[in-house]
Amino acid sequence: MANRRPVKKLDTTIVNRIAAGEVVKRPANALKEMLENSLDAEASLIQVVVKDGGMKLLQIQDNGFGIAKDDLSVVCERFTTSKLETFDDLKSICTYGFRGEALSSISHIAHVTIVTKTDDERCGYKVSYADGKMKGIPVPCGVNRGTQITVENMFYNVPTRHRMLKNFNEEFSRIRDVVARYAIHNANVGFSLKKYGRDDVHVKTLANSTCVDNIRSIYGNVIARDLMEAKETDETLQLKFHILSTSLDYHAPQLTFLLFINHRLVDAEGLRKELDLLYGLYLPVGTHPFIYISLEMAPENVDVNVHPTKHSVFYLHEEAINKKIRLTIQQLILGKQGTRNFSVQV
Ligand code: ADP
Ligand code: MG
Predict the structure, then answer these.
(1) Is residue 302 helix, strand or coil?
(2) Ligand 2 center to residue 41 CA distance, Å?
(3) Running DSSP on this structure, what letter comes out for residue 30?
(4) What CATH number labels 12-204?
(5) Cα-to-centroid distance, 81 and ligand 2 (Å)
(6) pLDDT of residue 298
(7) Which residues of the chain have pLDDT under 50?
(8) Which of 137, 139, 219, 228 is buried most, with the most CB atoms less than 10 Å from its CB?
(9) What residue's CA is closest to ligand 1, atom 12?
């Protein structure tokens, strides 16, 4: 047993590093945060480059509105954000970000370099960060409007985590999954994902495509041509939804379930299980469908502030909403709704 020692306040850097471990568990979490920042910055093109499953290098380049030179000194500090001012703003938050924790967290567990240019400045600026603070002053550089964030040597200062994340293929496939899902949902934005120094593209979508085009290019035509669609607004539940899910002609060994609530990629285990069970009534044993769902509800009905990763959300009328979705999909399956078939045009 350790001897009793006096109680002391932890050093801020230690506090921040502990918190960082919660926001960023692995490279894919960091990437999700950075993708959301690029989308918040209204980018129409987002390019991701990865080395060693993101552990060595994770770079994201966007053509969004950039970061002002004066903000560069604070962007990586904890709880600094341009998106939220009062607690009440949370009720109507429309941006992905609001906690001002992502860049700070990343800079506490990796080496971060930002190159950015806004429309208001004549040139861009480049600066690196460690533990939330700038290393030196921003250096002018000639770049186009937008932001490039380079994250290197993730978890270099957290040896246990570093040791745990040795399977680069696994980390890469998680990254691919996040990029793929955001690409499908944000059909107006062009995405690409590459491995460093290699030409093959692992995800590629064009700006101004459609959700179905993107499902086709990412998950293949076997799924895309088999999709049934439902789009509806439910006034009583204050709910708008868009569903694309496969007919009974398609079945796979694993369920693919893409769920967005107010444009956030989230996991709702209850709904996922309900829908898998529903398909289970009709599909061969041990096989599963592909389901994409986008739910939009009044911001005040959704609590996104449940966890730092914002991966889970609470929403009002959960049971009624889940039931509505289940019944809609059941009607699609049984052919009782107008379905659309998305065969490729030749
Ligand atoms: P949050 O997104 O919760 O505000 P972050 O730590 O993710 O917190 O980002 C901090 C701030 O950095 C943002 O509020 C935004 O002003 C700025 N920022 C980060 N990434 C970008 C980007 N790609 N383009 C423009 N601004 C960005
Ligand atoms: Mg953010």
Answers:
(1) strand
(2) 10
(3) H
(4) 3.30.565.10
(5) 8
(6) 86
(7) 338, 343-346
(8) 228
(9) 75
Q: Which ligand 1 atom is the nearest neighbour of the CA of 96?
A: 2
102 lines ligand 1 (CB under 6 A): yes
Centre a 10 Å sphere on the Cβ of residue 228 and count the other Cβ atoms it contains. 21
Atom of ligand 1 nearest to the CA of 80: 10
Determine the distance separating the centroid of ligand 1 and the alpha carbon of 11, expressed in angstroms: 25
Ligand 1 contacts CB of residue 265 (under 6 A): no
Sequence-ordered list of residues with C-beta below 8 angstroms from that of 101, at least 6 positions apart, any chain: 19, 23, 78, 79, 308
ipTM greater than cut 0.90: yes
Q: Is 98 in the pocket of ligand 1 (CB under 6 A)?
A: yes
- Asked if residues 189 and 213 have their Cβ atoms less than 8 Å apart, the reply is no
C-alpha distances out from residue 111 to 36, 76, 129, 132, Å: 20, 11, 6, 10
> Is the whole model's pTM more than 0.80, yes or no?
yes
Using the 8-state DSSP alphabet, how is residue 23 labeled? Answer: H
- Ramachandran region of residue 131, left (φ > 0), alpha (ψ -120 to 50) or beta? left
Using a CB cutoff of 5 Å, list residues around ligand 2, an ion. Answer: 37, 97, 102
Distance 99 CA to ligand 2 centre (A): 7
Nearest atom (ligand 1) to Cα of 82: 14
CATH number of 221-333: 3.30.230.10
Contacts of 169 (CB under 8 A, 6+ apart): 53
Q: Alpha-carbon distance 32 to 178, whole Å?
A: 7
Domain map of the chain by residue range? 12-204, 221-333
For 234-276, the three-class secondary structure string (H helix, E strand, C coil) is ECCCCEEEEEEEECCCCCECCCEEEEEECCEECCCHHHHHHHH
